[in-house]
Amino acid sequence: MWLHLPRLFSHLSSSPSIRAIILSGAGPKAFTAGLDITAITSGPLSQSAAPPLSTTPKTTTTHTPTPYSQPTGTPYTTQTPPPPPPTPTDPARLARSLLTHITTFQSSLTCLETCPKPIIAVLHGHCYGLGIDLSLCADLRICTPSAKFAVKEVDLGLAADVGTLSRLGKVTGNASWVKDVCISAREFDAHEALQFGF
Q1: Pairing of strands 188-189, 148-150
Q2: pLDDT per residue as tens, the chain (198 positions)
Q3: What does the chain look like in DSSP terms, one character per residue?
Q4: How far apart, in Å, are the Cα atoms of 24 and each of 27, 114, 152?
């Protein structure tokens, strides 16, 4: 879904018949439960994409001593494994792949933030992870008293790197509270959200 957001919001931004955009959840239980976990576990953020630890012994080159102790003797080498071919699990290539994936994801959400039309997020039920990111990009957030929020990325071993860490502090103006909810992944309710300006 998130890959379609830039194209969708480009259309909504340029359409003269649209004066405002309302984001809401379709089901009765949640605005959104967050990012699809199966997408994470099978994509570039999965553990299987991480490079294995190398168990190959290091190559050691030793020079045979000469009568004058100069390193001009014939070198001999112990264990010379062939260099590994470049693979997608090469740490540099994996890091580049992750950067591309995260940047694409971030820009998909930034298109909401830069939309010239007013965006209103109507939040109800659970609003976890990506739901907080989407609502932070909106100009106005309205929620039901039963709404529950959480920044759950830390429970998955991830950083909330698609915008929560920067946008939540900007919106609330309270870095201590932002650190609390982002590091603990604890749930907070509509009353607490209102109290801290979310």
Answers
A1: antiparallel
A2: 677 888 999 999 999 999 999 999 888 888 887 766 665 555 555 544 444 444 444 444 444 444 444 445 554 444 555 555 555 567 888 888 888 878 887 888 889 989 999 999 999 999 988 889 899 999 999 999 999 999 988 887 777 777 788 899 899 999 999 999 999 999 999 999 999 998
A3: -GGGHHHHHHHHHH-TT---EEEE-SSSSEEE--S-HHHHHHSTTSGGGSPPPP-PPPPEEEEPP-TT--TTS-EEEE--PPPPPP-TTSHHHHHHHHHHHHHHHHHHHHHHHT-SS-EEEEE-BEEETHHHHHHHHSSEEEE-TT-EEE--GGGGT---TTTHHHHHHHHH--HHHHHHHHHH---EEHHHHHHTT-
A4: 9, 19, 20
Query: What count of Cα atoms within 13 Å lies in the side-chain half-sphere of residue 87?
Result: 9
Q: How many CB atoms lie within 10 A of CB 164?
A: 21
Q: Nearest Cα to 35, choosing from 178, 159, 194?
A: 159
